[in-house]
Every structure is written in structure tokens, then in C-alpha cells.
Amino acid sequence: MAENWTDVPTLPAAVADWIARGIVAERWPDGARLRETEIAAELGVSRGPVREALRVLGERGLVRLVPRVGAVVNGMSRDTISEVYELRAHIEALICRSAVPRLTDADKDRLRGLLDQIIALRNANRVDEMLTTCWEFRETLYRPSSNRTALDLVRSLRTRLHSIPQVLRDDPQHIALAMTFYVRVTQAAVDGDTSAVERLVSEFMIKTGEQAVAAFRPGTAATTPARPGTPAWS
């Protein structure tokens, strides 16, 4: 399965993925200039795909396109990833504190139905759809919360993390972790066990952060991007 941000494994998307991994692995520190000619030479591609890749990274917030300078790293380090997941662990547990007591019978039925969908999609190996449904589950769980500011902040932090390649989509350990989490948190939510839901959500986010950081260990950016028509990072 491709780990590009798009479903089409184009060469610019693969190059963007490769550069993004290098940024997170701190090959290029915050503020470093990304030179099209050097990247193109290292990858054995023309400057066109590199230029397009840098434009994509600019849209994602990982680089800044500075006039008369070019692309400059606007870093997302492994430390930053860890910090974002730790922050989400605290905020999402806080949301659960006010959300779980307000869950209606309809909400609980919806959570059970979404869990069934998650399991079915996992069994069908439709991981992208599964993870999308996982977030829909969490939105359903959090929606009754009275803390709208916290909800907005979680969505913003999630968007920030999605500026990097989604390396956990193909990690069997993360998929196993997710499956265990959603089964347990569904039961706790249906039972109205607020403390258990808080604990499960916090532990899940911390562990997910640890898995993401491990996936971006130094050296992961050394893989040459796949050519169009082949899965990147297979």
C-alpha cells in the first residue's frame, strides 16, 4: 500500500514523501534550504518532480517557499510528533470526561455500529477506510462534550500530524493496537465507565505517538521514491 498523501502514486508525490521523511528524521533541520538540483541529482530525477514535490510540501506546511531563496524547512521533528501526541492524549481524555456521561442510547448504538464497520474493514484489509472510520468513531465519542474549544484543538492537531506521511497505515502493530483499543473503548463507553474511557484514550494516543516516532527513525529517508505505477514505500 502506498504511503503517499494521495491515492495516485505519482513521482512528485513519492518525492514529497521522501523529503518529508527526511525532514522528520532531521536530515534537514528547521530553517535548512532544500535545493532542487541536489535532491534531483540524488534521486536521479529531473527538477520538475522535485519542484512540484516542494510545492506540495509547502501546502502541507512542512516547508516555506521564500522568494529569491527557495524552499526552506518548516520542521516537524520526531520530538514535535511526540509532543503533539502527548498533548492530544491529555486533551482527548479531558474531552471524554465530559462526553461519556452525555452519551445517549443512540450515540452508543452508533459506536457499536462503527465498531462493526471497523472490524469488517480490517478483515477485508481495507485499512485506509478502516482508519477513516476510526476517526468517525472518535468524533462520535467526543461530540457530546461541552468543551468545543478542546474539540477544535484536537482537530487542528490531527491536521498538523497529517502533514507528514501516514506511516502507521502499514504497521501491523499499530493496526493490532487500534483494534484492541476500539473494542475496549466501545464497551467502556456503552457501560458509561468514564474513567476507563479516559484511560484507554490517553494510553492509545501515547502508544500511537511512540509508534509514529519509531517509524521515523533516522535512515528511513534513504529509500529511493517509487516510479509512477508502483507503490511507494512498499
Automatic annotation (TrEMBL):
The keyword DNA-binding applies. InterPro entries: GntR_C, TF_FadR/GntR_C, Tscrpt_reg_HTH_GntR, WH-like_DNA-bd_sf, WH_DNA-bd_sf. CDD domains: WHTH_GntR. It comes from the Bacteria. PANTHER family: GLUCONATE OPERON TRANSCRIPTIONAL REPRESSOR, TRANSCRIPTIONAL REGULATOR, GNTR FAMILY. Keywords: DNA-binding, Transcription, Transcription regulation. Pfam families: FCD (PF07729), GntR (PF00392). PROSITE patterns: HTH_GNTR (PS50949). Residues 9-76 form the HTH gntR-type domain. This is GntR family transcriptional regulator. Gene3D superfamilies: GntR ligand-binding domain-like, Winged helix-like DNA-binding domain superfamily/Winged helix DNA-binding domain.
